[in-house]
Amino acid sequence: MIIVGGPASNGIDEKLSEMLNVKLVKAEHKIFPDGESYIRIPESVRGEEVVIVQSTYYPQDKHLMELLLMIEAVKNLGASKIISIIPYLAYARQDRRFKDGEALSLKIVLNLIYESGSDELITVEPHKPDAVISYFKGNVKIVDPTPALAREIKKEVENPFVLAPDRGALERAERLAKELNSPYSHIEKERDRTTGEVRIKEAPHLDLHGKDVVLIDDIISTGGTLAQASQLSYNLGARKVIAAATHVLLVNDAYDKLTRAGIKSIIGTNTIKVENKNVKIADISDLIAVKL
Asked: Which ranges carry the Phosphoribosyltransferase domain (predicted)?
């Protein structure tokens, strides 16, 4: 086995190489003056099982193209098998057509990855795991980041209550609650498919008095949903609110929005290169390693 680290491997390639005691090859990369990407694999991988590590966080299109170029180059060099580790899988939220005429982005991206030569895909908690498994024509392994997140969350809370911001995240909340040995529940939200605006519904059934509420989601993007959930939690008696997510994008003023809403700590993982130093990062490299 040889690990090939891409420009957006975020150090996971090096950690996997060390954990598994296998060779690491760094892909050579540059951007041409016209903005196009260049990739070269500088060593022979003929006859080897090759593990390519490349996340597809912002700029998504650039990182996705680099991934496809690496897969094609490794295939051309004669690798016996290609495994693509994509910690954060871009375009995964468009897993179906919400309105007529929309492109099915997830299916297109997965087809590109497979047709470029990837036999297997390993990714960390995509938005809809079943959709990834359904659309990718090769083998798929999903990494559950919950144990890594729980390790960091335990440092921040004393009397935890895990709260999912919608019904779709309830199973994720249940997994985390088991790790924290805590109760859990969810609140309801409504999304306007045209504007994207989200509104959190009231939750009079919840009693959060004295609780350290852990808001858990797969992605923190603009932060609007979790900010509303935090305000609701305090209204219901929460002592403290923290937010945790696998993929912390923090688009635009998301961090300020969350802190203004009373969120005391934000915890993410290293699937994404998080520039904000106030975000606590849980390393998921060991959870990926066991999938190889």
From this structure: 150-247
What's the residue count for the chain? 292
196 is in an annotated binding site: no
pTM, entire model: 0.92
Annotation-wise, does 29 bind a ligand? no
Catalytic residues: 189
User: Could you give the domains of the chain?
Assistant: 2-143 (3.40.50.2020), 146-282 (3.40.50.2020)
Q: Model confidence over 247-287: pLDDT tens digits?
A: 999 999 999 999 999 999 999 999 999 999 999 999 999 99
Q: Count each helix (H run) and each strand (E run) in the chain, helices first.
A: 9, 16
CA separation for the pair 151, 171 (Å, rounded): 19
DSSP H helical segments within 82-161, as ranges?
105-116, 129-135, 146-153
166 is in an annotated binding site: yes
